[in-house]
Amino acid sequence: MNPSTSSAHCEGQSPSDDLMDDWFFLSSESAGPQGLAVSRIEEAQDRGKLKSKLVSAWNSVKYGWSLKQKSKFSKSSPVVMLGQSYELRDQGERERFRRSFRSLLWLTYRRGFPQLAGCSLTTDSGWSCVLRTGQMLLAQGLLLHLMSPGWTWSGSHHAVRDDMDLLVSRPTDSGERGLKEAANKRGRKLSLDSHLDRSMEAKHRKVVSWFADHPTAPFGIHQLVELGKSSGKKAGDWYGPSIAAHILRKAVAASTDPPNLVVYVAQDCTIYLEDVTRLCERPLPQSWKSVIILVPVRLGGQDLNPSYITCVKKLLTLQCCIGIIGGKPKHSLFFVGFQDDHLLYLDPHYCQPTVDITKENFPLESFHCKYPRKMAFSRMDPSCTIGFYAQGQKDFESLCTVVNEAVSTSAETYPMFIFSEGKSQVEEEEEVGSNTPTNIVTYIQRKNDRRRVDTSNSLDEFVLL
Fold first, then answer.
1. Which of 366, 369, 449 minimizes the C-alpha distance to 415?
2. Exposure winner among 95, 168, 323, 425, fewest CB in 10 A?
3. How far apart are the C-alpha atoms of 460 and 248, rounded to whole Å?
4. pTM score, whole prediction
């Protein structure tokens, strides 16, 4: 996303909007003197609905076409995705990657949902891409929290044409026999584990329903927009990755659906260990709550600082990483991995019809994407929010160790973020009841040095590193 973009739409505004304004203006002026105010209100609502439909159609055509264009993948380099590595030269590995990718939840623009509170919008096309990428990151954390290790969506097991642009040779007779034997073995295993599979699929469907485009869904667009009001945002506004992180934290805190889960948002590029401990601790003898940690950062000025590319790669190789709310200027994307110098991502900029999740066995296909896409690291916008998940206290301690090693790899620059003992200044001032503002100055620590950074004028709520 481009931080300087303050309009209501991000690369989704139709060029015909001015013409629509003129048409509706003439229409309202032609009304008679009686009921003119009511007529104008109704026409304004109709105008909003028509604009939404046109922007939705524009995005469907624009991004629907590009979505189905295949990115080229190399067989000579591994693909890394959320802590797993896949050698695409091997057909079995390629199939494993395809299933894992298709099992990620893909949350895109939707049209035809109930009106958002306070406006006439029935689609989020053109303005909510950061909220949608935030939904995808949260969804990945929920899948890790609730599903069995190594779970993949059953719909990704269907035989389909290879989704990646790779030259695939026909298997030999012995290879075909091996594939058939493997399929038979898998069939037997599925029959033995059918009860477990049904349980996992029920959980999967439940997680999808939490992101439904309906006012009652705890993590749906209606709830996220409502929670964004406390940050001065409304439907149609532009949301930054940092604000999205705090909205997700509020959404999880307000919901009882995901059991024993909390969200922590780092302050000033710092994860305060005492704050996390206090958030996750439960009365003895109960164990820690699981935690999703969100770290808003800015990795450069107007462009990505190349020195951070190695750090981003290392973070995406960690199993505790659940993705990055990021993108390119004016275009938010959900980064989940990389191959060589390209990021792997899911794109929310495709407007689909709203799915009625109240129906039994509602279709799941539109919540999963089968087209892996890549983008050069050099095009990455520096504003992003990085997500991690820890199931318990030991997992959190391990997370601190491996993540700290990953972000310390840039010896010639300041780390992306740091871990600190104690609690944040915000927490301390809340405890003593101070009204002193806390967002004017922050400190980034590297080894024994402290660097003073004035953030009062920094772009997009982030510290410039």
1. 449
2. 168
3. 18
4. 0.77
